[in-house]
């Protein structure tokens, strides 16, 4: 039994009482030890003792990615450097990476949360976990690793890459749980096929996939191709790493947020106002147990909504819907907002195309042009040109019908879109380059 599991089924009032106590302690500590928080709170005319109930949180200022960059690398740490036992960092496609730190207790908390997350996804003691999340500064590999050990499972720390060898290991060691990004999972399946290995005949029962947006259609494809039950796991380095929220394998209907450690809010990304439960907006997190790197009202830029209805698994924690995308990945094509995952859903309805795609955006005479590049099978690729043109037209028509945007569709040769070993690059935006 993973300790802290009892928090997962608490009645609302009991959970909120714990949250308030932990929140107040976090605020006191951050105020006392991090000059950034003290200055920012003062600017907003608020002190930790003004927060008497959870709704008072709205009085607190937000923390944004730029604040992390401005305090690079260790400026927001709330403990002396000698108490920090681990550093992680997010790659930072633009500007400096964001650096986060953990005390020994933080690492232990994270391991427990990841053990709980793996449990929710269907793993248990005795399972062999093939962990293909990248090890290193990225939180995926080590996050799953410590959780798996805490659970008492056997972990294969294979990391991302060297894909053929991974398939051989799967055949030889017989892992029952797969952890990887959804896009790398598809690549694993593809390489297995090329090696004449039927994934469905391996021993996998469950897959715990995350670190990037993926659609319901992609879930069906992965479950069908790999012969396992797939759940979504969410997290971000700033808040901890993987294990902030996870779907249960019983329902697979939204990700349970570990509310005994993180308080979620949904805000309107434009105005910053808190939105009522159930509305779609930007997810904001406050950590309430972290020591080295507490985050108070951190704006994730991830778009989702919260669901409070009870779940068949018995967990009472609030759920978040699958993240549709990040505010900074949202494409605005001639005034219509669209996320790559929505285009993915449309593509996956069409059986002739493969689940490998990339979006390119450029500007022509001040108009935004979206090109959807999608792979087709070798067999189709050798078909006559007219058939392919018809297929392109049909895909463009579907995109227009479902999403209301005009896109150019280009069917491309099998394997011509780069495969990911971690997070897939879905959008090339020539307007930003
Ligand atoms: O991606 C942590 C992680 C590792 C989560 C392994 C799950 C599994 P970062 O590299 O800091 O951390 O990236 C965080 O990735 O703000 C989201 O935009 C995106 N993301 C993470 N999980 C999901 C998910 C890890 N399940 C950023 N669905 C987040 C959609 C996700 N997006």
Total count of strands = 21
Ligand roster: 5'-O-[hydroxy(phenylacetyl)phosphoryl]adenosine
- Identify the CATH homologous superfamily of the largest domain: ANL, N-terminal domain
Number of helical segments with 4 or more residues: 11
**Broad structural category:** alpha/beta
The figure for the number of domains is 2
Task: Give the helix level as a range of percent.
Answer: 25-40%
The CATH architecture of the largest domain:
3-Layer(aba) Sandwich
Please give a quick description of this structure.
Keywords: Ligase, Nucleotide-binding. It catalyses: 2-phenylacetate + ATP + CoA = phenylacetyl-CoA + AMP + diphosphate. The chain has eleven helices and 21 strands.
Describe the structure.
The protein has 433 residues and is α/β, with parallel strands linked by helices. It folds into 2 domains: 1-328, 3-Layer(aba) Sandwich (Rossmann fold); 331-429, GMP Synthetase, Chain A, domain 3, CATH 3.30.300.30. A 9-stranded mixed beta sheet has the order 4-3-5-6-7-8-9-14-13. It has a 4-stranded antiparallel beta sheet with strand order 10-11-12-15. Strands 20-19-18-21 form a 4-stranded mixed beta sheet. Helix content is 31%, strand content 24%. The protein is globular, with a radius of gyration of 22 Å. The model has no long low-confidence stretch (mean pLDDT 95). The structure holds 5'-O-[hydroxy(phenylacetyl)phosphoryl]adenosine. 5'-O-[hydroxy(phenylacetyl)phosphoryl]adenosine binds next to helix 5, strand 7, strand 8 and strand 12. Belongs to the phenylacetyl-CoA ligase family. This is Phenylacetate-coenzyme A ligase. It catalyses: 2-phenylacetate + ATP + CoA = phenylacetyl-CoA + AMP + diphosphate.
């Amino acid at each position: 039994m993973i300790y802290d599991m009892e928090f997962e089924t608490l009645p609302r009032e009991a959970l909120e009482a714990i949250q308030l106590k932990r929140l107040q302690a976090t605020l006191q500590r951050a105020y006392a030890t991090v000059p950034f928080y003290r200055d920012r709170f003062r600017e907003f005319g608020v002190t930790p003792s003004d927060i008497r109930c959870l709704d008072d949180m709205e009085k607190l200022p937000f923390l944004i990615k730029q604040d992390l960059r401005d305090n690079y690398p260790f400026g927001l740490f709330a403990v002396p450097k000698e108490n920090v036992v681990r550093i992680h960092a997010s790659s930072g496609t633009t500007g400096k990476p964001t650096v986060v730190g953990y005390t020994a207790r933080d690492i232990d908390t994270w391991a427990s949360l990841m053990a709980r997350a793996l449990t929710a996804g269907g793993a248990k003691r005795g399972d062999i976990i093939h962990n293909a999340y990248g090890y290193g500064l990225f939180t995926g590999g080590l996050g799953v690793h410590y959780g798996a050990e805490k659970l008492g499972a056997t972990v294969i720390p294979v990391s991302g890459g060297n894909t053929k060898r991974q398939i051989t290991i799967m055949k030889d060691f017989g892992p029952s749980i797969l952890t990887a990004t959804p896009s790398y999972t598809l690549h694993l399946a593809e390489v297995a096929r090329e090696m004449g290995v039927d994934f469905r005949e391996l021993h996998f029962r469950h897959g715990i996939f995350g670190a990037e947006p993926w659609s319901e259609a992609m879930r069906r494809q992965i479950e069908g191709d790999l012969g396992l039950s797939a759940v979504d796991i969410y997290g971000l380095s700033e808040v901890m790493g993987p294990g902030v929220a996870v779907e249960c394998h019983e329902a697979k209907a939204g990700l349970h947020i570990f509310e005994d450690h993180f308080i979620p809010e949904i805000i309107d990304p434009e105005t910053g106002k808190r939105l009522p439960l159930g509305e779609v907006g930007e997810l904001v997190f406050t950590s309430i147990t972290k020591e080295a790197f507490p985050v108070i009202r951190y704006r994730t830029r991830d778009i989702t909504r919260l669901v409070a209805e009870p779940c068949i698994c018995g967990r009472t924690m609030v759920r978040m819907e699958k993240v549709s995308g990040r505010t900074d990945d949202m494409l605005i094509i001639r005034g219509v907002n669209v996320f790559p995952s929505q285009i993915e859903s449309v593509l996956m309805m069409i059986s002739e195309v493969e689940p490998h795609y990339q979006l390119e955006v450029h500007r022509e005479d001040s108009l935004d042009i979206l090109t959807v590049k999608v792979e087709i099978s070798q067999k189709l690729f050798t078909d006559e040109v007219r058939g392919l043109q018809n297929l392109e037209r049909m895909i463009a028509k579907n995109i227009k019908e479902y999403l209301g945007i005009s896109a150019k569709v280009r069917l491309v040769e099998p394997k011509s879109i780069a495969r990911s070993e971690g997070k897939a690059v879905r959008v090339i935006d020539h307007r930003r380059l």
